[in-house]
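Next comes this protein.

***
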Amino acid sequence: MDAGKILYAKHEGLYTLKFVGRIGYTSNWAFPLSKSLQLFIDQMAREKDYEYVLIDLSEATGIDSTNLGLLAEIAKMMIRKFDSKATIISTNRTVTRTLKTVGFNALFTIVDRPADFDAPMLELPPVPDSEMNVARMILKAHKTLCELNDDNQLRFQNIVDALESEIIRKEAARKAVLERGRNLPTD
């Protein structure tokens, strides 16, 4: 499965994110675009020199639930910081249906016309991370989706529960290995 890409630009108080191709899980529990998007959102949260966010999905062929959760984080941040909605451009009916299914029409202004945007865009570089950090990011994204509405709570709660259990299990295993290492005899 070919990985997509995420482009961005900041121009005159507007952040534009453009998703191209399939955005989501690639292989081997790797979500490098998701991680780069999370870091980008964290950076946006610290900045104050913009007022609008435009998310262009017109060239996206698909987007997974983790990245939907990250987009929901952008929407919540925009409402909290600026008391305004971010805008999503979606010209693909399947993608638009997915957005509406998870309740994005309440968080975003969704339009079906391509934007006339000619500022140069940069590509977010994929950022690899540890399996545990990726699991935590996926968990947070799905919790964000669950918070949006009751349908999402039903849709994504099993994922949240499974991820929480897996993280607890792996953290306990890691602590046990560290503890055994401390109790080894020294020469």
